[in-house]
């Protein structure tokens, strides 16, 4: 694989068209032009040249002239204008797992310059970068509150730079810069490559800088994210960006752009690197992760669209290329001892071959996040989810028939536009029928630009939303507690994540279904094969080696008690993932 060395000028210059240097002294947005800078014709000329197009001689001549022009003005955003020695950067992450991966991408971009270092202490920071979430109003309000705290810190440290990254940057754009003059840079999800330039220009000009240009191509496939927490034995890998589903309540397509997938080989290479670093679990990330298609690979086009029965979509699905099932198979082959998870899928994209692959591969975790959002067909139609209550339940039944040990998690919204008491009751009954192990539940928060914003009225009173939300939470906790208690006495394989937060004498880890398991940190037997299990069962355990497991080890644990969210267990023995899969039915 050829990896292009990054230069900001390798990209279409229209990416820079939204970089603005905004006067911190004036309420009007004032664009500062660079003397003898590039003009509109230059940008239009460049935009017509595809990045990977092989030019003919005439195009080559035109492109050479343009690049010569670029070089002449390179000091406009040249890294050499960076100030001082290494500046300390503090990252604060809000929102979903994708934001963790985005933070690692942003960190990698800064690290490559050699001019920045990461700090975990916000008071030591020269730069504070907040990776933001814009999915709900409450999430944004928390970020505004943090910004005010950092603004107080900035009054004490005049050269402190504050930046907003991610979805909130994309949604609000100039509004962030205009509000109380809190922020020095605003950088959208597709503009992280420009972070060094934005930080430089903000310092050099004394003005704010912004780039929120969305891209149809950017996936950061050539960047190796730098992990924020190097002690963890699990990692997140972004395999696609953006979303095409356009659910009526959702802001994601407007802040992360259209759906595009990374080349499959770049993902497998990243998994291999993580495996070499000792990572024991990776989670493949995407806004619609199971609609992944690598269209860069030429394969025979299968015009048949494999979609879950009873589901539909408002957009024309992509055809050809490598699908999510192909990627998941290759990912599971990298290291049989590495667990593979994925999130967040859409229920429409679960063809049979994907389900059978999950059944057959021991290291593909038996957990599916299946966002329902509502249990009412009428409400689902207003949400533009593309399925009915019956189709969703049929899919749940089918998956359980193929993968009996599967665990489901989900998302639910309380109080969506025009939601009636009967529609809410339908959601409550769905919670009881499916028996989820975990649910993300929220009261509805209307977002600008969405279809709901333009077509519906946010007419469910806040107190009604809150009551329905609490009723959903109560039902979920009851059903999850009953489900977990039914598993007491079973032996589950647990990957140790950390020392328990409640007791330093305990370990915490997660089982295959991604439920938290706590157990005592102590010396236990080590099982290497079937013969070792026979010795353990026959009372010949004195012939077995004993040791204290460490973070990153797999431990077979017998569940002894349960709540709705976790288990208490007794550690029985250590073993490899594949060994446990062979002997689990005989424990």
From TrEMBL:
Read off the InterPro entries from this record.
Elp3/MiaA/NifB-like_rSAM, Methylthiotransferase, Methylthiotransferase_CS, Methylthiotransferase_N, Methylthiotransferase_N_sf, MiaB_methiolase, rSAM, rSAM_horseshoe
Q: Which cofactor does it need?
A: [4Fe-4S] cluster
Q: Which UniProt keywords apply?
A: 4Fe-4S, Iron, Iron-sulfur, Metal-binding, S-adenosyl-L-methionine
Q: Where is the Radical SAM core domain?
A: 229-482
Which residue intervals define the domain TRAM in the entry?
A: 485-573
What Gene3D superfamilies is this protein classified in? Answer: Methylthiotransferase, N-terminal domain, tm_1862 like domain
Keyword Repeat listed? The answer is: no
What does the record give under GO molecular function?
Answer: 4 iron, 4 sulfur cluster binding; metal ion binding; tRNA-2-methylthio-N(6)-dimethylallyladenosine(37) synthase activity
Q: Give a GO cellular-component term.
A: mitochondrion
Q: Which residues form the MTTase N-terminal domain?
A: 87-204
UniProt xrefs under Pfam families: Radical_SAM, UPF0004
Q: Which GO terms describe its biological process?
A: regulation of macromolecule metabolic process; regulation of primary metabolic process
Similarity field:
Belongs to the methylthiotransferase family. MiaB subfamily.
Concerning PANTHER family, the annotation shows:
CDK5 REGULATORY SUBUNIT-ASSOCIATED PROTEIN 1 (PTHR43020), MITOCHONDRIAL TRNA METHYLTHIOTRANSFERASE CDK5RAP1 (PTHR43020:SF2)
Annotated protein name in UniProt: CDK5 regulatory subunit-associated 1
Tell me which species this is from: Brachionus plicatilis (Marine rotifer)
